[in-house]
Amino acid sequence: MSKRLVVAITGASGALYAQRFLMQAVRHYDELYLMLSSNAAAVLKTELNRELDAYLCDPKITLCEKRNFFTPPASGSFRHDGMVIVPCSMGTAGRIANGISDDLTTRAADVCLKEGRKLILVPREMPWNLIHLRNMTQLAEAGATILPASPAFYHEPKTIEDLVDTVVARILQNLGIEQTLVGEWQK
């Protein structure tokens, strides 16, 4: 079976995390199923000054319509290696935590939880209020990995991309991918 990954980009700030993650994911996966929230394209344009089309030029990436529940990631019978939501808005996390599958992203995440597949949420927003904390607790209890976009500094980053890549490296590691973006601590 080919290596497949489901990726969602929501409208939370942090488009650079999505961009850098997609650059790595196409190196490690045969097929990527990409979905975007209503605001994701606008955030990509605002923060990176790039149109969505710039991310779809790789033939490994299939863009899924956000309301189409007849796409592979909406079904438990579609086998894949997991799902990453980067960045993950608090609204998306809240809907997933409470079983509200109102678009393909939340449906695909729900499928991951019910099928016991890897689901990684990369929230970027802060601070978190009590509702956010409870939603994250519910998600973790349901089997999701909560991987906040909190960059590390121990490798002496020189650029913003270096900082972002510390988070991308941790996402890859949590997917079981050997990565070379950021070395191990004290190596």
UniProtKB/TrEMBL annotation:
Q: Which InterPro entries match?
A: Flavin_trans-like (IPR036551), Flavoprotein (IPR003382), UbiX-like (IPR004507)
Alphabetically sorted, this entry's keywords are: Flavoprotein, FMN, Lyase, Prenyltransferase, Transferase
Q: Which residues bind dimethylallyl phosphate?
A: Y154, R170
Q: Which domain of life is it from?
A: Bacteria
Task: Give the reactions, separated by semicolons, that this protein catalyses.
Answer: dimethylallyl phosphate + FMNH2 = prenylated FMNH2 + phosphate
Matching entries from NCBIfam families are given as: PRK06029.1 (NF004685), ubiX_pad (TIGR00421)
Q: What does this protein do?
A: Flavin prenyltransferase that catalyzes the synthesis of the prenylated FMN cofactor (prenyl-FMN) for 4-hydroxy-3-polyprenylbenzoic acid decarboxylase UbiD. The prenyltransferase is metal-independent and links a dimethylallyl moiety from dimethylallyl monophosphate (DMAP) to the flavin N5 and C6 atoms of FMN.
Name of protein: Flavin prenyltransferase UbiX
Q: Which organism is it from?
A: Armatimonas rosea
| Name of the coding gene | ubiX
